[in-house]
Amino acid sequence: MGRLRRKRIHKNIKDIKKKYRTRRKTKDLDQIHEDLKPENVEAVVKAPIDGDLPGFGQFYCVHCTRHFAENHLLVDHMKTKTHKKRVKNLSIEPYSQKEAEMAAGMGSYVKAAPVAIASMEELHAMRQNVAEALESAAAKA
Prior knowledge:
- The protein has 141 residues and is mainly alpha-helical.
- Helix content is 53%, strand content 4%.
- The protein contains eight helices and two strands, in the order ααααββαααα.
- The protein has helices at residues 3-7, 14-23, 29-35, 38-45, 71-77, 81-90, 97-103, 120-140, and strands spanning 59-61, 66-68.
- A two-stranded antiparallel sheet has the order 1-2.
- The protein starts with a helix and ends with a helix.
């Protein structure tokens, strides 16, 4: 067995490639857009306490789909280049089947328009409003 044979021993083993490729898989941009819709945002922001997640799942960046252990880590994350890039990428409307058909000649193609993205401060304000509404409903009952 020569030197090159030893180096390329795992070259075409598909399950090893798939294991490393899927380990770092995060949500795609269109899935994040679904989470940012007003009807879905409450479920994402008002997450139940989960002991398996960092910070019990309470400090979550919706744009990057990451959990953080403490609030100051989430605030520091919002200042990073990767978070700002993700927010910029989310400002474009996600690619849809309708847009694909128009680009293929089945209609007039219109370039995707920018989409308004809720900031983390707005999402946390929504979370507090929901919590206050639940507390007031419980007090009335």
